[in-house]
């Protein structure tokens, strides 16, 4: 009997197994199938690489068993390959089977049905039974994750979230890592409870039952690497340090929850417990995950990015209208917008964000949504450390005079951030000038003064471009402004008109004095200084400024010497190339043992 396989049974090895066990006279492979596999392999996709390997294996088996191997038809055009989802390639495969009076071999149910409708002899290969994947051999009791790099070694994190150690397991060669990767991909394609979440050039993400696996290859990574993560524990809400007050809030009031924590702190394990708790209260619960790696009851449907877009997933959820949605790992601005849209539509939301402090979680919304809307989106922040609840904050929106200010006409909308258990006020978030600021209440007086100093500097730099300005607020009614000596007359203006206009704008009495070198400039901001951590990499320098200054401009000092100004990234870092002018300045300062500081502008 002659057989014509389609792509579905070649790429996962089912056809290879079939011709080893059946009486086969000839195998006829359409050129369009070869072209589709080649196209996927050229894009660096794991499915294409797996397909090439299976084609080589088919040729080997045919030679060993004296099976005729033929290639039929013409090469596929790019347009035809891109139209594969429309059934064009499947149609050519059926035509090949009909013209060669051969049986069509497929694992695609639709292809099988169409083939039978057209009178083609069809062999449908069911998914093969489960086999142990080699990656499992690296996991022992208590293993959280396994990290394998070709020609380097395999390492395992053993312990629990927040408390683990990294152990070297053994050396692994490239060929072994490649075999493990191929085994993972093939099983994911066969197993109904597994799937390939993402397949890009150089990177494949697989959810293999309870294992979340990332496979990376050159050119994306410098070597073939596999990272596999497995949940160590599955906890219930009762297993956490949850007070009666917090449990009541989760059950009755909290509808916009952020779960924050550092990577590996145990955030996902906690939201799994929250999701199943809501399900136990007869609530309809869904999840949004990319990749889908939460381990949940079958009653909870898990969604990923629809056609690669979480906004489309959000559109579907607006139609489904669950009581609660778990949004695991919010990173991009679009993620926060989807969370906001669903919450404002009345869906209870639980979002997971990376943050080293609880208050940093709410700062992720600042600049992305209007300030007054934030408390409608987020009402509770649960911070996780070392696998347990470390702190719980609540948000409330009122109009008041911020702490540290005295004048009634300074009243404005303020978001109060309170500690749940004690109800103590920890932070206030409000607009100051053109900025939205997060002010610790314990430092409110000093913080307000520093905000006022920055606002004075911002306005004066806008009025007098190119002039170095440092401000020092002396009290609620006056401030001293330090500028270059040559700029003093310009600031004061003819008959004092310029300084009078600025005083009216700022509502403060201003005293103008010349700068006395860098020391005077730095002293004006002595309280704002923060020593920063420096990480030297091969070609770059990374300055850890802090997420609380994300998107803000800062000055970088080496001791008392001003080096340069820069803007902090969304993650709280500044990255410099060593070869740049600023990079060279910083390297020189570090070689001379200077302490590096950042001063917010």
Description:
It is a single chain. The chain has 601 residues and is α/β, with parallel strands linked by helices. The protein folds into 5 domains: 2-124, 3-Layer(aba) Sandwich (Rossmann fold); 134-229, 2-Layer Sandwich (Beta-Lactamase), CATH 3.30.450.90; 237-432, P-loop containing nucleotide triphosphate hydrolases (Rossmann fold); 445-523, GMP Synthetase, Chain A, domain 3 (2-Layer Sandwich); 529-600. The chain is 33% helix and 31% strand. The protein contains 19 helices and 32 strands. The strands form 6 sheets. The chain has a 10-stranded mixed beta sheet, sandwiched between helices. The longest helix has 20 residues, at 444-463. The protein is elongated, with a radius of gyration of 31 Å. The protein starts with a strand and ends with a strand. Mean pLDDT is 85; it is low at 517-524.
Keywords:
19 helices; 31% strand; 33% helix; 7-stranded antiparallel β-sheet; 601 residues; 10-stranded mixed β-sheet; Beta-Lactamase; alpha/beta; single chain; Rossmann fold
Strand count, sense and closure of the main sheet? 10 strands, mixed
Number of domains: 5
Q: What is the overall number of helices?
A: 19
Low-confidence segments, given as residue ranges, are: 517-524
What is the CATH level 1 assignment of the largest domain? Answer: Alpha Beta
CATH H-level superfamily of the largest domain: P-loop containing nucleotide triphosphate hydrolases
From the 3D structure, determine the CATH topology of the largest domain: Rossmann fold
Oligomeric category: single chain
């Amino acid at each position: 009997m002659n057989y014509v396989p389609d792509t579905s049974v070649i790429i996962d090895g089912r056809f290879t197994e079939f011709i080893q066990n059946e009486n086969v006279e000839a195998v006829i492979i359409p050129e369009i199938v070869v072209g589709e596999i080649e196209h996927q392999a050229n894009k660096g996709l794991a499915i294409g690489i797996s397909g090439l390997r299976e084609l080589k294996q088919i040729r080997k088996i045919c030679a060993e068993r004296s099976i005729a191997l033929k290639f039929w038809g013409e090469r596929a055009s790019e347009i035809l390959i891109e139209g594969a989802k429309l059934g064009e390639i499947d149609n050519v495969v059926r035509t090949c089977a009909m013209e060669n009076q051969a049986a069509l071999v497929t694992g695609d149910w639709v292809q099988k049905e169409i083939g039978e409708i057209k009178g083609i002899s069809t062999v449908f290969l069911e998914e093969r039974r489960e086999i142990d994947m080699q990656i499992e051999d690296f996991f022992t009791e208590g293993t959280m994750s396994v990290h394998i790099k070709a020609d380097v070694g395999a390492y395992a994190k053993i312990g629990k979230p927040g408390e683990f150690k990294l152990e070297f397991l053994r050396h692994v060669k490239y060929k072994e890592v490649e075999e493990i990767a191929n085994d993972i991909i093939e099983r994911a394609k066969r197993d109904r409870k597994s799937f390939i979440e993402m397949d890009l050039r150089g990177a494949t993400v697989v959810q293999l039952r309870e294992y979340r696996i990332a496979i990376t290859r050159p050119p994306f990574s410098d070597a073939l690497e596999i990272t596999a993560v497995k949940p160590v524990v599955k906890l219930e809400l009762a297993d956490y340090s949850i007070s009666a007050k917090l449990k009541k809030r989760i059950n009755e009031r909290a509808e916009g929850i952020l779960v924050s924590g550092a990577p590996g702190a145990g955030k996902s394990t906690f939201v799994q417990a929250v999701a199943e708790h809501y399900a136990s209260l007869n609530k309809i619960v869904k999840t949004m995950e990319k990749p889908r790696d939460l381990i949940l009851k079958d009653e909870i449907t898990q969604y990923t990015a629809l056609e690669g877009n979480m906004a489309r997933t959000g559109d579907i959820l607006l139609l489904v209208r669950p009581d609660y949605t778990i949004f695991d790992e919010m990173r991009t601005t679009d993620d926060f917008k989807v969370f906001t849209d669903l919450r404002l539509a009345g869906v209870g939301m639980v979002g997971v964000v990376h943050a080293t402090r609880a208050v940093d979680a709410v700062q992720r919304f600042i600049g992305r949504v209007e300030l007054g809307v934030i408390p409608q989106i987020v009402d509770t922040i649960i911070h996780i450390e070392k696998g347990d609840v470390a702190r719980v904050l609540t948000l409330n929106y009122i109009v008041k005079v911020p702490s540290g200010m005295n004048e009634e006409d300074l009243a404005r909308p303020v978001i109060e951030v309170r500690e749940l258990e004690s109800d103590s006020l920890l932070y206030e978030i409000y607009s100051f000038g053109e900025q939205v600021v997060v002010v610790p209440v314990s430092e409110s007086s000093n913080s307000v003064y520093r905000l006022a100093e920055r606002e004075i500097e911002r306005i004066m730099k806008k009025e007098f471009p190119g002039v170095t300005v440092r401000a020092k607020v002396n009290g609620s009614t006056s401030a001293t402004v330090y500028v270059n000596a040559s700029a003093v007359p310009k600031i004061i203006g003819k008959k004092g008109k310029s300084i009078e206009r600025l005083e009216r704008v700022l509502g403060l009495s201003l005293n103008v004095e010349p700068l006395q070198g860098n020391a005077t400039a730095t002293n004006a901001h002595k309280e704002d200084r923060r020593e920063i951590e420096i990480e030297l990499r091969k070609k770059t320098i990374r300055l850890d400024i802090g997420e609380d200054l994300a998107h803000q401009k800062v000055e970088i000092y080496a001791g008392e010497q001003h080096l340069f100004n820069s803007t902090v990234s969304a993650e709280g870092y500044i990255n410099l190339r060593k070869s740049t002018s600023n990079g060279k300045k910083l390297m020189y300062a570090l070689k001379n043992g200077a302490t590096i500081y950042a001063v917010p502008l």
